[in-house]
Amino acid sequence: MAMVVGVFENLVNAEDAVADLVASGYSRNEIRVLVRDGVPHPGRRCADTPDAANEEGLKTLLEAAGLQVSAAHFFADAICNGAVLVAVLCASPRAYDARDILDVYNDSAGGSPAAQRRTLM
C-alpha cells in the first residue's frame, strides 16, 4: 500500500481533487481530508488556541497514519498555516495516478510549500 499526500491552499481545489479521485475509481474510504479546526483559515492558529488541534497532535496523527517524521512535521506545519491536506491510501501501482490527479488540482504549481506532495510506499 502507498499513501499519496497533496497540500492545497484552498478547500475548493482539494474538494475538486477528491471528486476526481472518486470519479477515477478511488474509494471514499481511501481518501482523507485534513483541515485545521475543520475549516480553512488564513493565518496561523494551531498553537494559539488550546482547544484547536495543535501542531504536535497533528504530527503524531500523521506519523500514526504512516508518514515519516519529516513529512509529518512538514504537513502539520502546512495545515497549521491554513493549508488543506488530501491523503489517498491505495495500492502501490495506483499511487502514480493518484499523485497525477492531486497535481492537476494543485493551485500552486512551481515548488512552493503548498505545491508539495509525497508518495510513501
Secondary-structure blueprint of this entry?
Elements: E1 2-8, H1 11-23, E2 31-35, H2 55-64, H3 69-80, E3 84-90, H4 95-104, E4 117-120
Antiparallel strand pairs: 1-3, 1-4, 2-3
Description:
It is a single chain. The N and C termini lie close together (6 Å). The protein has 121 residues and is an alpha+beta fold. Mean pLDDT is 78; it is low at 39-45, 48-52 and 109-117. 37% of the residues lie in helices and 19% in strands. It is built from 4 helices and 4 strands, in the order E-H-E-H-H-E-H-E. Strands 2-3-1-4 form a 4-stranded antiparallel beta sheet, with helices on both faces. Helix 1 (11-23) runs antiparallel to helix 4 (95-104) and helix 2 (55-64) packs across helix 3 (69-80). The chain has helices at 11-23, 55-64, 69-80, 95-104, and strands at 2-8, 31-35, 84-90, 117-120. The protein has one domain (2-120): Alpha-Beta Plaits, CATH 3.30.70. 33% of the residues are buried.
Q: Could you provide a short overview of the structure?
A:
By secondary structure, this protein is of the alpha+beta class.
How much of the polypeptide forms β-strand, as a percent range?
15-25%
SSE sequence, one letter per element: EHEHHEHE
CATH topological fold name? Alpha-Beta Plaits
Q: What structural class do you assign from the helix and strand content?
A: alpha+beta
Task: Look at the structure and give the CATH class.
Answer: Alpha Beta
Number of domains: 1
Radius of gyration: 13 Å
Chain-averaged pLDDT: 78
Count of helical regions:
4
Order of strands across the main sheet: 2-3-1-4
CATH architecture: 2-Layer Sandwich
Distance between the termini: 6 Å
Mind summarizing the main beta sheet?
Answer: 4 strands, antiparallel
Helix content range: 25-40%
Q: How would you describe the shape?
A: globular
Low-confidence stretches: 39-45, 48-52, 109-117
